[in-house]
Give the backbone structure.
Amino acid sequence: MRAVVARVTEASVTVDGETVGAIDEPGLLVLLGVHKDDTADAATVMARKLHELRVLRDEQSCATAGAPLLVVSQFTLYGDTRKGRRPSWISAARPETAEPLVDAVVAALRARGAHVETGRFGAMMSVHSVNDGPFTVLVEV
């Protein structure tokens, strides 16, 4: 499982002009990709890492600051561009595998007490964010 995590002052995701998820205070925008070999265990570990990642101001985490997360599924994080000009998606999980694992990460974050907003799995989404820093890291489990 792989996530591109950006510290933001606000972020939102819209589908067909409708806002489906938004955070309007400092927190994390999480673009989450699922590998074809990922399991539910990876979802639990990813949720813990995201919640406890100390990348907010003053080395705070979402857990310590009570900051929100906006989680957006992003299969393209497993695009392989080493050969040719067209990415290969062979490492990305199929939708029927990926969606329950993305949902599991969100559920595990919420079980930890996190405020989590989401995009809509499989939809064509527009993501708006105001990066803080900018500060962006790659988290892999």
User: Anything to note?
Assistant: The longest strand covers residues 126-140. The radius of gyration is 14 Å. Strands lie at 2-15, 18-23, 27-33, 69-73, 116-118, 126-140. The chain is about 25% helix and 35% strand.
